[in-house]
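Recap from last week: sequence in, structure out.
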Amino acid sequence: MDYFNAFWVGGLICALAQILLEKTKMLPGRVMVLLVCLGAVINFFGWYEPFAEYAKAGASVPLLGFGNVLMKGVKEAVDEKGFLGIFQGGFKAGAAGTSAALIFGLLAALIFKPKMKK
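Predicted structure tokens:
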């Protein structure tokens, strides 16, 4: 049942993002930022943990999960360092995922030799 829930929840999130892209004039970057901010807001209200417990990877893989990670890092840093944690927490929490994306992107570019479209 976990696989099914992950599939339909993750698919619903992606489908809603696609509907935003198709039916509005929002650019892809803005939709992605909206999803990250929505994940942070859901975490702020304490709804993300029960949601992630139900949906498993369906909740953690899309950009909502990245917003959750950033907000979780900010909360922890604020508890440790006070006001400065607002600025430090997101960077510390999101560093591993961002670094992995950059490194794997570089490796893919080196292996597959991408070319510009003509």
